[in-house]
Amino acid sequence: MAHAKPLATLRSATGIPTGRLAVWWVLASEVVIFGGLLGVYLMHRIGHPEWADAAAHTQTWIGALNTFVLLTSSFTAVLAHQAAEKGNGKEAAKFLCFTILGAMTFLVVKSFEWYNEISHGYTITANTFWSFYYTAAGLHALHVIAGAIIMGVVAFDAFRGRELHRVELIGIYWHFVDVVWIFLFPLLYIAK
Amino acid sequence: MSENNEHEHSNDDGHGHDGGHHVNYFKIYVVLVVLFLISVAGPEVGEMTGLRWITLITAFGIAVVKANLVIQNFMHLRWEKNLMKWVLATSLILMFLMVAGISPDVMNHEGNNWENVAAKAAVERGVDGEAEEETMVVAAPVGFTPQGAFQTVCATCHGTAGDGNGPAGAALDPPPANFTDAAFWADRDKQRIMTVIQDGAAAVGGSSLMAPFGALYTDEQVSELADYVISFAPDGAAPGGE
Asked: Is residue A12, in this structure, part of any structural domain at all?
């Protein structure tokens, strides 16, 4: 690449590479966004015993399937990072593609799930439980979509041996998306 | 300078972050999947034994363990500089502070000087019946009292004080009637109020937003409810008897 890089990407006052620092900053703010959302849900759930009836209609096995899909995609994301560390861009790109496949599987399963629920009348306005359900899972799904797109870009570069350090950065983000789901799963599907 | 420069830079940040640690990722993955299976089985065991805390522990306890495994080993927070750990801890603490700060308002439905009528009504509606199937249909309270009926069924639109300012009323056009307004009572008597409760406002030429509630109450109860509605009228404005 001919053009020069901005200085800020090359130096680091903290000792943490700038890109990684930036990803962590993003996640620090995401902690407040998702943490706040989940915290508020938990409080309402405790204050409203009748939510148990509504929550009983979520499909545990679909949530479980998606949990498994995301866990696996996190695993392939870390394998991509490992490959990138060894300088093997092609391998890294391959594992990133597996991760994108995981993201897409997650979204397809989610669409079926929502289609089914909405056609049974459980819409975002049905009651406060369902409002929360669609808001939280929807915000999470947007993160999945964003992650998949960025991973596509990173994989494209990595395949050509470029910008390999980015494989780790998108990985860190992706694991965070996984961690959010790790908490959403028991909240929405298990502890009814 | 090439992109490799930056990559090397991140390799040589002097703390052995990249490549310096040997995690058996597969092992971690297997542990995660096993934990996941336990959390799915939790509710079954909880149900079989009737111990709800088993479900809660397998659900949330395991979630914390899983999240920690991912954060430490996949996100490599273990090897990250302390600065970053502090930044993340700070936002976690701020988040907990926020949640703790609003929890008394959200989790309680009444306090010394306030009462969350809408939340209470929601709980009552939901717990009382299969109401969540048809969320808009309000179940009649079991033991009838005119106040009780009004506060649970009518107050969502007409307000607890009968002034038309209920939480669901704001969105309605026409707005719910204000029973504390003398002008409202100028041309209404008890018979009309009873007709409205039984057959809806449409029966007297009004809006169908004021639905018929005749199916919920006996004639006697409708009469008591009408008296209660009349009791909101300001002094001197209430229509005389039947």
From this structure: no
Determine whether the interchain pair B91/A29 forms a contact, defined as Cβ–Cβ distance below 8 Å: yes
- The label of the residue with tokens 């298990």 reads A190
Examine the domain organization and report whether B94 and B142 are in the same domain.
Answer: no
Binned at pLDDT 50, 70 and 90, residue B96 comes out as very high
Structural domain contains residue B142: yes
Separation in Å, CA of B86 to nearest CA in chain A? 10
pLDDT in tens, A30-67: 999 999 999 999 888 888 888 887 788 888 889 999 99
Q: Is residue B215 part of a domain?
A: yes
Query: Closest residue of A to B5, CA-based?
Result: A10
- What pLDDT is attached to residue B5? 40
Contacts of B94 in chain A (CB under 8 A): 32
Distance from CA of A31 to the nearest CA of B (A): 6
Residue B212 has pLDDT above 90, yes or no: no
Residues A131-142 have pLDDT tens digits of 999 999 999 999
* Residue B61 domain boundaries: 2-107
**Do B126 and B142 fall into the same domain?**
yes
B100 and B6 fall within a common domain:
yes
Q: State residue B127's pLDDT score.
A: 64
Neighbouring residues of B183: CB distance < 8 A, sequence distance ≥ 6: none
Nearest Cα neighbor of B154 from B174, B170, B143, B138 is B138
Confidence class for position B20, pLDDT limits 50, 70, 90: low
Rounded-to-integer distance, Cα B101 and Cα B98, Å: 5
* Element containing residue B86 per DSSP (H, E): helix B82-107
In chain B, which residues have their Cβ closer than 8 Å to the Cβ of A21? 84
Q: Which residues of B touch A25 (CB under 8 A)?
A: 87
**Tokens 């926020």 belong to residue:** B98
Q: Is residue A126 pLDDT above 60, yes or no? A: yes
Looking at the structure of chain B, the number of domains it has is 2
pTM exceeds cut of 0.80: no
- Cα–Cα separations (whole angstroms), residue B120 to A132, B104, B115, B136, B156: 19, 15, 8, 16, 11
Same domain flag for B88 and B163: no
Amino acid at B236: G
For residue A128, give its domain range.
Answer: 18-190
**Span B54-73, average pLDDT:** 87
Asked if residue A137 lies in contact with residue A181, where contact means CB atoms within 8 angstroms, the answer is no
User: Which domain-ending residue is among B65, B86, B107?
Assistant: B107
Looking at CA atoms only, how far is residue B203 from chain A in angstroms? 29
- Which one of B73, B107, B141 terminates a domain? B107
